[in-house]
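Priority: medium. Attachment 1 of 2:
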């Protein structure tokens, strides 16, 4: 029995030595902390050591965020307008049966105004999505895409402005070709027809350079083989309007080109749309220049904000890696 008691004392002593050695290795004595077996401090000690080890292996994600400098409200407006334009364009195509027959897109000889809504809506939606999600989620890829895409648009606008100023005669020839090409397809598409009528009514013009340009249309030409009732005529949008008349006379242009030049001036506008458009630009040069400068400044402002936000996000992420 005496030997058994000695063995127990030796075992307890060895256990205490082992525990003391573990405490020395863990550095507990340097912090002045005690340790009692079987108490909650033991669990806390091992839990804290495990937590420190996990933090060293798997650092916590940096919780610091960068305040978005691109206002989500502005990008949301881009998104909503983009969806609206796309919806209008798709609805117009559905009404014309284009969606049920995609190959009919190439059948139209002239310009389809629906493309304006689709392209504008698509660009606005892409820009709004990239700017909004990129700012809210601090996604540098989307923010860089936003700034690069906006920069490309700005560069194209600047190039178009320089070319239009440098090659005025070439621009006039292209505009003449564009209008005459759409005159040929005047009856082929209702949207194109409405666009031409609006242009001629707004600028008080007829044809590209005169009423005789409507001789290109199969319904309005003056050939002997033309059986149309509109032969040698022009659309009603070429006619001079009587302020006293509330109802538009859609047949006012019938046979008007069969009259003399002096008589034509009484019934229709004899000036072409290209010269009238050029005159309108000269009269409203300040307004047009102001609009272009304002749009350019907004684009530059958006590019700078996006790039600054990208720099801030990358700086914060870099600081998190070294803390």
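Attachment 2 of 2:
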């Amino acid at each position: 029995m005496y030997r058994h008691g000695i063995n127990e004392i030796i075992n307890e002593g060895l256990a205490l030595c082992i525990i003391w050695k573990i405490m020395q290795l863990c550095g507990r004595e340097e912090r002045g902390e005690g340790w009692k077996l079987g108490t909650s401090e033991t669990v806390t000690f091992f839990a804290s050591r495990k937590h420190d080890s996990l933090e060293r292996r798997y650092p916590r994600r940096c919780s610091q965020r960068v305040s978005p400098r691109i206002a989500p409200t502005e990008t949301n407006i881009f998104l909503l307008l983009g969806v609206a334009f796309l919806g209008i364009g798709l609805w117009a195509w559905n009404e014309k049966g284009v969606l049920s027959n995609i190959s009919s897109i190439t059948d139209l000889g002239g310009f389809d105004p629906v493309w304006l809504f689709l392209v504008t809506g698509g660009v606005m939606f892409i820009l709004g999505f990239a700017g909004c999600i990129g700012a809210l989620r601090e996604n540098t890829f989307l923010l860089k895409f936003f700034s690069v895409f906006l920069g490309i648009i700005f560069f194209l606008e600047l190039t178009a402005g320089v070319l239009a100023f440098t090659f005025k005669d070439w621009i006039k020839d292209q505009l003449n070709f564009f209008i005459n090409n759409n005159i040929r397809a005047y009856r082929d598409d209702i949207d194109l027809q409405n666009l031409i009528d609006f242009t001629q009514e707004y600028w008080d013009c007829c044809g590209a350079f005169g009423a005789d340009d409507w001789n290109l249309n199969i319904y309005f030409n003056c050939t002997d083989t033309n059986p149309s009732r509109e032969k040698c005529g022009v659309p009603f949008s070429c006619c001079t309007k009587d302020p006293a008349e509330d109802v538009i006379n859609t047949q006012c242009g019938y046979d008007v080109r069969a009259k003399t030049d002096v008589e034509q001036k009484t019934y229709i506008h004899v000036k072409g749309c290209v010269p009238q458009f050029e005159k309108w630009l000269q009269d409203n040069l300040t307004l047009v220049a102001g609009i272009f400068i304002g749009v350019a400044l907004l684009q530059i402002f958006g590019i700078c904000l996006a790039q600054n936000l990208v720099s801030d996000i990358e700086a914060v992420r870099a600081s998190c890696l070294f803390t």
